[in-house]
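re: ur question from yesterday

yeah so i grabbed the chain u mentioned. its 118 aa long if i counted rite. heres the sequnce exactly as i have it in my notes:
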Amino acid sequence: MQTEILEYFSKLTKAEIGQLPENGGFVLQMAPSSSGTAYLDGSSDDNMSLLFLCKNKSQKEAITTLENVCNILTRNKRHSFGIYNIYVATQPNYVEKAGEFWIYSCIINFKYHNKEVL
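ran it thru and got these structure tokens back, copy pasting raw so excuse formatting
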């Protein structure tokens, strides 16, 4: 289910899934998150964190890209896959400068209802 959620957020934000390319880009990756709540029927409410990274020659464009993602994701109240309680855990912030590229990141946290019964 996590793969489908990653693909959903990739499509919604236009971020690629994976590592930042050397020549700049905008990607998302899974980040560590706390465990969720398991129920007796095998379903659960799970937590998930997504790390968004933007690498751009323009510092302003990198920050703006991530700010837009935060707004798109938190203002949309109807997400697929039973996603709820979505919030910005870490606002867009500086990571490093690699050559002529600025790298910024933000983290989005949310819960989702996992109906997969084991």
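noticed a couple things. The radius of gyration is 15 Å. also The longest strand covers residues 83-98.
anyway ttyl
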